Amino acid sequence: MQKLKRAGFTAASFVVILLVMLLLGQAMTPDWQVEPYRDHLQVPTRSTAIASSLGATTPEGTHPVRERKIGITLDGGVRIQAIIREPGDRKGTGPACLFIHGAGTGKSSEVYGDLASAMASAGITTLVPDKRLDTYTTFHRDYQAMAADYGRSLDRLRSWPGVDPTKVGLYAESEGTWISTIMTAKDPGIAFSILTSPPVYPGRRQMAMAATSYLDLIGAPKGIRNVIPRLMGMDLSLLGLEYADFPSLPYLDQLRMPVMINFGTMDVSMPVEQGAREIISRTHANGNDNVTLRYYPTNHQIRTGSRLAKAGLPLEPRYTHNLEDWINAVALGTQANQWSTPMIAGSQPHQLNQVPEHTNTGLIPSLTALLTLMASGPILLAAALVSALIGALGSHLRARGKDRRQSGFSKGLTGRLWSLGLLAAGLMTGLLAYAFTVVRKALGLMHLSSMMASCWSLLSVLCLVFILLLASTLTSIFNRADGKPAVAGSVHWLTLTLTLLGSLAILGSLIFWNILVF
């Protein structure tokens, strides 16, 4: 009868702990999720060709290319290097294009060489400056200051011999498009703006969509996928990531010049359909319908051969030709109703997930709070181990000194506490290892094997075992048949308290990471 009573107490404790943890997980979940994208564009033609009804444009390869390295002085006296590429036999003046770096590049000698040279051979003078790196880090980026720096390069390009200052525009990729839209909002004299693989939305929202899409592609467990809103809704100021909330959308309202948008349909990190619709909608609302949209069967950098950004990959064969035809047509004065090719064309895109409208936080408001929770469990268990060693040493010394004071744990409780601590530490280690593996696989777009998928289920089952062990431990403490206390001695009480608190902290961490969601 007593065994049945103890089993009932353990079962009730298990159910209560499980329900509390599930409710805690619900409280940790913000009021938004990354949903599948459904408002798909229908591209009328696969041909990406661009032509103006005003006449033919200069084709690529018409001019020999002359290359020259120059220096540009930025605010604070910082001097950067830049590369000018221009048609070597130009007579008169023509259009020009300033290139703006995306994330991951910095040197003018290492990026845009093929693009800029191709444009120069079609009569377009190009300037590729170095990115200023003394104020640019992984955790700190000031897009306003970067726009001012690129403005110095723009002024230099406008004054370059052979350049018509009224026909100078911008080419930007990825993160660089946030910078270019600041520039176009502040400088109405910019003749055109090319936005390639633009994130469009504030970084936190766009990254929530991107991370979820990567996880979907590799077949990550639902539990890992659904932790993205919990992470992306947090205050990330511990890392200094203020630029994650850069207010990008209002700058799109100032795109009053001809705009060209380019996306690779293999790029799952960008809102290839939703973002395009956002730009077109905002420019239309402000009276600008001169927006050309092209889709290519390529990666983020409009390069072929891999979905990933890798060095040495070739550009999509028609890409530079289309850019040149578009810039030269804009230089001719082509208006929205004067294009003889469709405004939207190319490969059919299929955006997997939708950029969320907001990114509120859940119960854990910041990265600091999460790291505190995750660190507290191992720290408390380590303290429990030290306390246990001190208690064991004290018991040994008392035994040698024939001290008859009672101290220690009841029968079976010592084993349960050791099992609880070891299982908690093992689960935390296993979770971190699994998460690291999933991130590595996602960045490489490598599908998770069936064994990796089953490992998540194993962690989930072990977590249930952990809760059952915790319930059994509580039964050993509070529901004893002999009526005697389960613990004697202050050090042993301290060990018990630290072990239980550490286990609960680790359980809370596991719940944050959705370990009970199969």
TrEMBL record:
InterPro entries: AB_hydrolase_Est10, AB_hydrolase_fold. This is Conserved hypothetical membrane protein. One of its GO terms (molecular function) is carboxylic ester hydrolase activity. It comes from Bifidobacterium mellis. The chain crosses the membrane at residues 369-394, 415-436, 456-479, 491-516. Keywords: Membrane, Transmembrane, Transmembrane helix. The lineage of its organism: Bacteria, Bacillati, Actinomycetota, Actinomycetes, Bifidobacteriales. The keyword Transmembrane helix applies. PANTHER family: ESTERASE ESTD.
